[in-house]
UniProtKB/TrEMBL annotation, chain A:
GO terms for molecular function: cytochrome-c oxidase activity. InterPro entries: Cyt_c/ubiquinol_Oxase_su3, Cyt_c_oxase_su3_dom, Cyt_c_oxidase-like_su3, Cyt_c_oxidase_su3-like_sf, Cyt_c_oxidase_su3_a-hlx. SUPFAM superfamilies: Cytochrome c oxidase subunit III-like (SSF81452). This is cytochrome-c oxidase. Its EC number is 7.1.1.9. Belongs to the cytochrome c oxidase subunit 3 family. Residues 7-292 form the Heme-copper oxidase subunit III family profile domain. The chain crosses the membrane at residues 21-38, 44-68, 89-109, 153-176, 188-205, 225-253, 273-291. GO terms for cellular component: plasma membrane.
From TrEMBL, chain B:
Gene3D superfamilies: Cytochrome c oxidase-like, subunit I domain. InterPro entries: Cyt_c_oxase-like_su1_dom, Cyt_c_oxase-like_su1_sf, Cyt_C_Oxase_1, Cyt_c_Oxase_su1_BS, Cyt_c_oxase_su1_dom, Cyt_c_oxidase_su1_bac. It is an enzyme of class 7 (translocase). The keyword Ribonucleoprotein does not apply. It is found in: Cell membrane; Membrane. It holds the Pfam family COX1. This is Cytochrome c oxidase subunit 1. Signal peptide: none annotated. Pathway: Energy metabolism; oxidative phosphorylation. It catalyses: 4 Fe(II)-[cytochrome c] + O2 + 8 H(+)(in) = 4 Fe(III)-[cytochrome c] + 2 H2O + 4 H(+)(out). It comes from the Bacteria.
Length: 292, 536, 269
């Protein structure tokens, strides 16, 4: 039983690994340092955070490195692949629920709290006693105009462009996937590379948009509940695009090194799923944050 | 087929201490770590509860100041929920699910180790806030803004600790789902799985669905405090009540996360000691699923007094009441399993029976709380405290103890002392009722919760309650003693089957269970299967 | 007002509170009856079907008829509970036709009462006796804090809220800093006080008397020390009281030349 052949019928129990513990320490330092920074304790916070980031990076590199090596050596069988796939699917589902919390906040603010403050529905007394004269409308930064007057980013400008970019990137990624399945490595590298580039372009425009919002429109995180929901939703989305882009780039390098086979390329698929998830979230964002 | 333990030339060779306990991937070892961690947290959280009970022993402020009292209340709850009860069930799941479905290990063993190792760090962070300037969190475990935003330096630490617990739970849940769906031995159909496995499968879905929502909610607290957002500030168009909606969207499913695996445990134990198959196996499965589904649409029953529109109050009242139906089905099925059985009353069975009775009492008070006009009176009083300690302590915690006694021989290979176990049960049951039953009276008489001091009229029952609290706490030392004794291998050797009426795969492997089990998938013989009715 | 050894909710002093009390008793008894049946069956099984008595386990493991019965009957019971609950709730939600409106604002850690339409506006906080006694290690005995023959430790205030009996009074409730909750048990409800929002509630008190309650939402360190006292007096007496207070407030306002409804904290200090 002690042979290392990739027998498809053998259940693979990996050997121990130090990375989980290293990851826990890294995470602890990272968030602990961040918390110190928030409390204004830079002398402790900064080194802790940086150490945390460094350890996390080493951990990710090491852990994924292990898994990739094992995978390339053919230790994994279909069952392990299925476990990985399930893991990824449910991880993405948890991410969906994370965004759901912020979408929930957006809907609540638009459909309940702002109208109530403005005296609609059950808010008659609220408006009459506390916020007389406040007219409910969306976008709103509330009866005290927290953050002051602000301008909006029109849906049909950069956001539309970004929508098209992300949609296109979904297509190019699928082309790359087909190329992989067809064994066409050159096509794979090209289209995957295009996808990475599109991700970067998206992020570039997103950054431009933020700069524009802060500099010219006075639209900030502090612009009442509109600014809060706007930046938290687009911001967390942007963070996920960043992660997705990095993941795509890693995959690109792996393809370059000849990883993945026609019918076994879980790493590729996982990243692709993630990218499509980021895509779908953007569509919801475009609709509910920008258009409506 | 065989297990491929890479780099292990001998598959039952045990790695060295550090490799085994810090870098390990073995589901049994990780399960053990979870269980020990949970026991430690139970003692820490319990000690805080005892500080609360000591201050409330007689009227007047004697021991702690109000700020510290509130910190104790808050951290007690967080430690008990996220540190004691949830990890205990994850530990039981880790140990038993692979054994029950004939899998060699969890599906993602390294991630499993990570899920565990995040926890000690998360609690280190949470507990360290108690020693900071301004102390730990004092806004209640629900962290309602604006109060929670007034917290001192502790706030970001607490929130990040919660994020870490969330990450740990989500990874643990993913692992359990992948294990159950992907690693069952051939022939172990979904509807042949032990009920404990079923309840954990459904619980895992709940976890993945709601832990991220909690993460989102506390993230918004953080940005409201540090990054100028106005989610929970009316002046900016937000609403403090919005936090409560998001929190309870997590919070209500969370309480079922803590009780569904308990239902599973009890559904394993009662048939064993009644020597009769579980009554209505499929109904049990469907009831579990219904409870899980309903748990998503009842959250606002924690918020009946925040001033929701009438329609909302009615909707959430009706939806909440509905949960009594599937839960009732479970209770009736347990009683029917006992009916015409051939019962014996070893310690696990005693705890399981205690669970059925006292959980039902807690369920009844839950149902009373669901009735909006009555909840206007009960809300935020000791009646609520009594309710949730009945479902949590005599519910979840009792089931964990039942499970511990039930499976200890399998884990350690030795029988614990029945005499001591029975003492533990009877002492616990007596004191826990002395502890929590009078709290119903206090609540009805008008004592609010989360207060460090009270009027003379409330003194007698508070005194009883505190005596019960200390008695219950001391009784748990007995439990710790029994566990340690077994873990060190003292006691008569246990057979593989351990209990005369026990059925299921976990009883086909030797006691103690070898380090690696089911390296070849077992042949499933329906007759040895757990107590599910496999005929339909 | 809580009594030593009190076991049950008080029926209260309003029609609403009695409705709530009736529902409470109804659901309590239903639960007790179901409990007796379920635990009775279980107890019987435990006594009868034990191995030591030679019981032989049966083989069956389901029974569709029984399962349907114990699904349907609870549904009916629940409907029976939901019905009066719904009616009471609708009754409680109707704040129309009130003759007097009082605005209640929660602060850390006191209450402000404003009689809407008058200049009467004052704050109400824990009385000095209780306050002294409740200090950590004060050495004072809570049993010594008394008003008349009642122990009022932590349940007494400096300025009670005065309300007329037999009158529908509407409350508009809010808070200034964090969430509080206004609760006088004998009125039969509590209502959260949310900063930035108004919640409405109402009462019509039947009998004159002094009714005590407490803040019922954790609001910081002194959450346990912000009681509520309602002084219910006959209508004429109330009208006289209000008129006098109103006059005093107007006089004070002209004297000090500041609006009487000025910044709350100014009045506190
Ligand atoms: C394991 C945890 C757990 C469980 C299982 C439950 C179960 C239930 N809970 Fe509980 N609950 C909590 C933990 C739990 N709760 C906690 C922690 C809080 C407080 C949080 C905080 O504020 O800090 C709380 C608070 C809480 C409230 C808010 C109270 C308030 O703050 O004002 C309400 C209101 O509806 C409620 C209702 C219920 C109901 C209806 C059930 C039902 O699931 C119960 C169903 C069971 C039965 C009914 C018994 C068995 C049934 C039968 C025998 C059938 C026949 C019966 C009838 C037809 C009546 N709970
Ligand atoms: C799973 C969850 C869980 C568990 C197991 C417990 C267990 C206990 N709880 Fe907990 N409790 C909560 C969840 C839980 N609680 C929650 C969610 C709240 C609400 C918080 C909030 O309002 O925000 C709460 C609030 C709460 C209050 C109300 C506080 C307030 O409103 O101000 C009280 C008061 O009596 C209390 C008491 C106890 C006691 C005595 C135990 C006992 O069962 C504990 C027994 C265990 C031990 C005692 C430890 C073991 C023994 C030793 C350490 C040995 C040493 C012993 C001696 C020296 C005697 N709890
Ligand atoms: Cu004010 Cu509690
Ligand atoms: Cu709930």
């Amino acid at each position: 039983m002690a042979n290392h052949a990739p027998d498809q019928n053998i259940y693979y129990v990996p050997h121990g690994s130090k990375w989980p513990l290293v990851g826990s320490i890294g995470l602890f330092l990272l968030v602990g340092g961040f918390a110190n920074l928030m409390n204004g304790n830079r002398t402790l916070g900064l080194p802790m955070t940086l150490a945390g980031v460094a350890i996390m990076l080493v951990m990710l590199y090491g852990w994924f490195g292990n898994v990739i090596t094992e995978s390339v050596r053919g230790f994994y069988n279909r069952q392990v692949g299925t476990s990985f796939r399930m893991g990824m699917i449910w991880f993405i589902f948890s991410e969906v629920m994370f965004f759901a919390a912020f979408f929930g906040a957006l809907f609540y603010a638009r459909m309940l709290s702002v109208p109530w403050l403005g005296g609609e529905g059950d808010g008659v007394a609220t408006n009459a006693f506390l916020w007389q004269g406040f007219e409910p409308a969306w976008p709103s930064n509330g009866p005290q105009s927290i953050g002051g007057e602000f301008g909006l980013i029109p849906a049909w400008s950069v956001p539309l462009l970004n929508t098209l970019i992300l949609l296109t990137s979904g297509v190019t990624l699928t082309i790359a996937h087909h190329a992989l399945k067809a064994g066409n490595r050159a096509q794979l590298l090209i289209w995957l590379g295009v996808t990475v580039l599109l991700g970067c372009v998206f992020l570039f425009y997103q950054a431009e948009e933020y700069i524009h919002a802060y500099r010219d429109l006075n639209l900030t995180l502090g612009s009442g509940v509109y600014g809060s929901t706007f930046f938290m939703l687009t911001g967390f989305h942007g963070l996920h695009v960043t992660l997705g882009t990095i993941m795509l780039a890693v995959i690109w390098f792996r393809c370059l090194k000849g990883h993945f086979t026609k019918d076994d390329h879980f790493g590729f698929e996982a990243v692709a799923w993630y990218w499509h998830f980021v895509d779908v979230v953007w569509l919801a964002l475009f609709l509910f944050v920008y258009v409506l | 087929m065989a297990t491929h333990a890479a780099h292990h030339d001998d598959h039952d060779h045990k790695p060295g201490f550090v490799d085994r306990w810090f870098f390990g991937t073995n589901h049994k070892d990780i399960g053990t770590l979870y269980l020990l961690f949970s026991l430690l947290m139970f003692f820490i959280g319990g000690s805080m509860a005892l500080i609360i009970r000591a201050e409330l022993f007689i009227p007047g402020m004697q021991i702690v100041n109000p700020e510290f009292f509130n910190q104790m209340t808050t951290v007690h709850a967080l430690v008990m929920i996220f540190g004691a009860v949830m990890p205990a069930f994850v530990g039981l799941g880790n140990w038993m699910i692979p054994l029950m479905i004939g899998a060699p290990d969890m599906a993602l063993p390294r991630m499993n180790n990570w899920s565990f190792w995040i926890l000690p760090f998360a609690f280190l962070m949470l507990l360290s806030t108690l020693f900071m300037d301004g102390g730990g969190p004092a806004g209640g475990w629900t962290l309602y803004p604006p109060l929670s935003l007034q917290g001192g330096n502790s706030m970001p630490f607490v929130i990040f600790a919660i994020h870490m617990m969330g990450i740990s739970s989500i990874m643990g849940a993913i692992n359990i789902i992948a294990t159950i769906l992907n690693l069952r031995a051939p022939g172990m159909d979904l509807l042949k799985m032990p009920v404990f496995v079923w309840t954990w499968l459904i619980t895992a879905f709940l976890l993945i669905a709601v832990m991220p929502v909690l993460a989102g909610a506390v993230t918004m607290l953080l940005t409201d405090k540090f990054f100028l957002t106005s989610f929970f500030n009316a002046a900016g168009g937000g609403d403090p009540v919005m936090y409560q909606h998001i929190f309870w969207f997590f919070g209500h499913p969370e309480v079922y996360i803590m009780i569904l695996p308990a239902f599973g445990v009890v559904s394993e134990i009662i048939p064993t000691f009644a020597r009769k198959p579980l009554f209505g196996y499929q109904a049990m499965v469907y009831a579990t699923a219904s409870i899980a589904f309903l748990s998503f649409i009842v959250w606002a029953h924690h918020m009946f007094t925040v001033g929701m529109p009438l329609g909302g109050e009615l909707f959430f009242m009706y939806a909440t009441m509905l949960i009594a139906i599937p839960t009732g089905v479970k209770v009736f099925n347990w009683v029917s399993t006992m009916w015409k059985g051939s019962m014996t009353f070893e310690t696990p069975m005693l705890f399981a029976l205690g669970f059925v009775v006292m959980f039902t009492i807690g369920g009844f008070s839950g149902l009373m709380l669901a009735i909006v006009p009555a909840d206007f009176q009960y809300h935020d009083t000791y009646f609520v405290v009594a309710h949730f300690h009945y479902v949590l302590v005599t519910g979840a915690v009792f089931s964990i103890m039942a499970a511990a006694y039930y499976w200890l021989p399998k884990w350690t290979g030795v029988m614990y002392s029945e005499t001591l176990g029975k003492w533990h049960f009877w002492l616990s049951t007596f004191f826990v009722n002395l502890l929590f039953f009078p709290q119903h009276f206090l609540g009805l008489a008008g004592m609010p919760r989360r207060i460090p001091d009270y009027n003379i009229a409330f003194s007698d029952f508070n005194m009883w309650s505190s005596i019960g609290g200390f008695g219950f706490g001391l009784s748990q030392l007995l439990f710790a003693w029994i566990v340690i004794k077994s873990a060190r291998g003292h006691g008569p050797r246990a057979t593989a089957q351990v209990w005369e009426g026990a059925k299921g795969l976990e009883w086909t492997v030797p006691s103690p269970a070898p380090h690696h089990t089911f390296t070849t998938p077992p042949v499933i013989d329906d007759r040895v299967l757990a107590h599910g009715d496999v005929t339909h | 007002n809580p009594e030593p050894w009190q076991l049950n909710m008080s029926p209260g002093v309003t029609e609403t509170s009695r409705m709530v009390y009736d529902i409470h008793m109804l659901i309590l008894w239903i639960c007790v009856v179901i409990g007796v049946l379920v635990f009775g069956a279980m107890g019987y099984a435990i006594l009868k079907f034990r191995k030591s008595k030679g019981a032989v386990p049966a083989k069956w493991s389901h029974n569709t008829t029984a399962e349907i019965i114990w699904t349907v009957i609870p549904v009916l019971i629940l409907v029976g509970m939901a019905w009066p609950a719904t009616n009471t709730l609708i009754h409680m939600a109707d704040t129309d036709d009130a003759e007097l409106t009082v605005k209640i604002t929660g602060y850390q850690w006191l209450w402000r009462y404003e009689y809407v339409g008058t200049d009467v506006n004052f704050v109400s906080k824990l009385d000095r006796d209780s306050d002294r006694t409740r200090m950590l290690g004060s050495g004072l005995n809570p049993a010594d804090v008394r008003t008349g023959d009642q122990n009022t430790y932590l349940l007494n205030v400096d300025n009670p809220l005065v309300l007329p009996t037999g009158t529908k009074v509407r409350f508009v409730i809010t808070a200034n800093d964090v969430i509080h909750a206004w609760w006088v048990p004998v009125l039969g409800w509590k209502q959260d006080a949310i900063p930035g929002f108004i919640n409405e509630a109402w009462t019509r008190i039947d009998t004159p008397g002094t009714y005590r309650g407490q803040c019922a939402e954790l609001c910081g360190k002194d959450h346990g020390f912000m009681p509520i006292v309602v002084e219910a007096v006959p209508r004429e007496q109330f009208d006289a009281w209000l008129a006098q207070k109103d006059a005093e407030a107007k006089a004070a306002a002209t004297a000090a030349n500041v609006p009487a409804t000025g910044d709350a904290l100014a009045v506190v200090q």
